[in-house]
């Protein structure tokens, strides 16, 4: 370890590892969280070289310098350590480690494996060259035994064993890299320029499972300077009004870490917070441990990265039983809004005003099951709710008052003009005209329709592709399509006719998108109990008839299922 360490070295090797091992990233491991690297190029004495008589390497000596090298990152910044003196000459600590299944498979040029294998590594520190004239100098060794065997069995001389340290993580990740990748020679330790000494120190409780004062391990992250962007916002409006668009363009800034999930009737507290699941270790032994859900995972990331902004987006929040899904976490939605002059708790504005006790969450987020759980001030929770879906699950007042409610207005003022002015197939009627006129009818018949305002068409109810017209379909009413289908059924169709029939059907798939999405919604939902307001119900009694007339007509006549005053409104606005 005679090479001087610089931030540039760390950044360079992280860049290489991210490129070569991009496939190992998942919800529990991100290369951006790494603050320390120990890169070891294996020598004969370090590897399981089968050509040697003594093929079972038992340890790798990391450092034995009698004097520190200027600029060198200390091993104390990577591995936990205890002070040594002539009375305390040697110690050994067993630490949690894990190997990536995909990385192990890749060393054999295989793929398809996922997940992690839990294991241990032993760290030994002892005094070397002790004499009556010298107290000796400390040496750090990784004592293998059978540790990391799935990776070690794959590696050859000159290959690399890479130990990774993440910020505040008590578990190390270990990867194997072939010698074709240039990670330098020897054994070298690199630390991120973003890492403070605190970020790599372990508490005694993490090493011995003994309890200690919570603030000893986490005080600096609890009360450190932290981004204060955290809010709870609930966006509501009619389907397609632009709630998700608003989140993307107004709340998700460049550099924000965003996680998105969707509530549904079967979504539970266990899915959201986490649950105890079986885990199989490298020896095939089954144990049970808490597996965090998306809320706990993003809570951990936000807590450990105080200067970065995190956003949890919950789409369709009222389609699940939100109070039951949140459980006791519901209490955390109350946010601190001011710093008190007297008896302030020291937390930044935006942090949960009240904490809760949850050992499973606390153990994941803080590494201490006794720590009080709070949402940090750099984590926002943004939900969306379709007002027309309020009958799925009702959000009670106690739940709603903990959110900043924001109605997303349903108009075309800020809608992309290419969508607003797009013609609906070949009808000559734009999407804005159609949507506006239908919504005017819905609101104008409020007395005859339940929750009429919530039944309106949203400006983003459709996409551009839903409005496009494929003229390969031709005029279905001219008999060509029906004649080709009859030939197909009788087995007399030619290859040329098959090609034409295929082209018509492909075009029909495109041209059916609008009626199947919009007109079906108007028939089945918006005007379900009073279709006569807008539809010619004396002529068309079923959705099948309505869709058929749209497909078999041309131009403005595709809307002949609507009453004459509705069709005239479409034409009048366009003129």
Residue fraction in strands: 15-25%
Tally of domains: 3
| Spatial sequence of strands, sheet with the most strands | 2-5-4-3-7-6-1-8
What's the number of helices? 19
Describe this structure in words.
The protein has 575 residues and is an alpha/beta fold. Helices cover 29% and strands 19% of the residues. The chain has three domains: 7-202, At1g16640 B3 domain (Beta Barrel); 226-407, Rossmann fold (3-Layer(aba) Sandwich), CATH 3.40.50.300; 417-574, no CATH class. The protein is built from 19 helices and 15 strands. The strands form three sheets. It has an eight-stranded mixed sheet with strand order 2-5-4-3-7-6-1-8. A five-stranded parallel sheet has the order 10-13-14-9-15. The protein has a two-stranded antiparallel sheet with strand order 11-12. The model is unreliable at 1-6, 64-72 and 197-217 (pLDDT under 50).
What does this entry show, briefly?
This protein has helices at residues 7-20, 101-106, 149-152, 204-208, 214-222, 243-251, 269-272, 294-304, 322-326, 359-366, 397-400, 417-420, 431-444, 464-467, 480-490, 495-511, 513-526, 543-552, 564-574, and strands at residues 34-41, 59-63, 90-100, 116-128, 137-143, 160-166, 171-177, 187-191, 232-237, 257-262, 274-280, 286-292, 310-315, 379-386, 404-407. With 575 residues, it is an alpha/beta fold. The chain has an 8-stranded mixed beta sheet.
Q: In terms of topology, how is this protein built?
A:
Layout: H1 7-20, E1 34-41, E2 59-63, E3 90-100, H2 101-106, E4 116-128, E5 137-143, H3 149-152, E6 160-166, E7 171-177, E8 187-191, H4 204-208, H5 214-222, E9 232-237, H6 243-251, E10 257-262, H7 269-272, E11 274-280, E12 286-292, H8 294-304, E13 310-315, H9 322-326, H10 359-366, E14 379-386, H11 397-400, E15 404-407, H12 417-420, H13 431-444, H14 464-467, H15 480-490, H16 495-511, H17 513-526, H18 543-552, H19 564-574
Parallel strand pairs: 3-7, 9-14, 9-15, 10-13, 13-14
Antiparallel strand pairs: 1-6, 1-8, 2-5, 3-4, 4-5, 6-7, 11-12
Helix pairs in contact: 8-10, 13-19, 15-16, 17-18
């Amino acid at each position: 370890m005679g090479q001087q360490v610089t931030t540039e070295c760390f950044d360079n090797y992280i860049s290489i590892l991210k490129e070569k091992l991009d496939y190992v990233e998942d919800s529990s491991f991100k290369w951006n969280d790494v603050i320390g690297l120990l890169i070891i190029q294996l020598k004969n004495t370090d590897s399981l070289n089968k050509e040697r008589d003594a093929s079972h390497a038992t340890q790798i000596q990391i450092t034995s310098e009698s004097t520190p090298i200027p600029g060198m990152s200390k091993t104390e910044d990577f591995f936990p350590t205890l002070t040594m003196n002539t009375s305390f000459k040697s110690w050994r600590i067993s630490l949690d480690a894990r190997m990536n299944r995909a990385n192990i498979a890749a060393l054999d040029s295989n793929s398809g494996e996922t997940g992690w294998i839990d294991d241990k590594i032993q760290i030994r520190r002892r005094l070397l060259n002790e004499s009556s004239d010298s107290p000796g100098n400390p040496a750090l060794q990784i004592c293998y035994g059978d540790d990391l065997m799935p990776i070690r069995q794959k590696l050859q001389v000159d290959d690399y064993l890479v130990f990774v340290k993440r910020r505040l993580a008590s578990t190390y990740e270990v990867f194997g890299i072939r010698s074709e990748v240039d990670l330098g020679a020897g054994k070298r330790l690199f630390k991120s320029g973003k890492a403070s000494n605190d970020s790599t120190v372990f508490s005694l409780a993490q090493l011995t499972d003994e309890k200690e004062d919570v603030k000893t391990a986490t005080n600096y992250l609890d009360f450190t300077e932290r981004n204060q962007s955290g809010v709870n916002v609930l966006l509501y409006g009619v389907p397609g009004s632009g709630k998700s668009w608003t989140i993307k363009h107004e709340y998700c800034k460049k550099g924000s870490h965003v996680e998105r999930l969707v509530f549904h009737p079967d979504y539970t507290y266990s899915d959201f917070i986490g649950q105890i699941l079986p885990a199989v270790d490298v020896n095939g032994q089954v144990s049970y441990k808490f597996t965090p859900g998306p809320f706990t995972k993003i809570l951990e990331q936000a807590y450990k990265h105080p200067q970065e902004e995190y956003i949890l987006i919950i789409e369709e929040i009222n389609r699940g039983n939100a109070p039951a899904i949140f459980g006791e976490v519901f209490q955390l939605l109350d946010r601190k809004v001011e710093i008190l002059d007297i008896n302030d708790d020291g937390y930044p504005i935006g942090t949960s005003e009240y904490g809760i006790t949850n050992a499973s969450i606390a153990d994941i987020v803080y590494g201490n099951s006794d720590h009080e759980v709070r949402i940090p001030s750099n984590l926002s929770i943004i939900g969306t709710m379709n007002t027309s879906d309020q009958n799925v699950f009702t959000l009670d007042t106690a739940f709603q008052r903990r959110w900043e409610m924001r109605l997303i207005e349903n108009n075309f003022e800020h809608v992309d003009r290419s969508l607003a002015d797009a013609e609906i197939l070949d009808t000559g009627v734009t999407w804005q005209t159609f949507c506006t006129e239908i919504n005017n009818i819905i609101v104008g018949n409020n007395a005859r329709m339940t929750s009429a305002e919530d039944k309106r068409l949203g400006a983003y109810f459709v996409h551009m592709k839903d409005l496009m017209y494929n003229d390969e379909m031709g005029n279905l009413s001219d008999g060509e399509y029906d004649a080709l289908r009859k030939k197909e059924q009788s087995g007399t169709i030619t290859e040329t006719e098959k090609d034409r029939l295929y082209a018509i059907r492909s075009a029909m798939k495109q041209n059916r998108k609008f009626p199947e999405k919009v007109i079906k919604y108007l028939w089945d939902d918006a005007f379900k109990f009073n279709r006569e307001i807008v539809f010619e119900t004396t002529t068309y009694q079923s959705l099948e008839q309505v869709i058929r007339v749209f497909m078999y007509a041309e131009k403005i006549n595709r809307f002949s299922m609507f009453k004459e005053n509705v069709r005239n409104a479409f034409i009048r606005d366009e003129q």
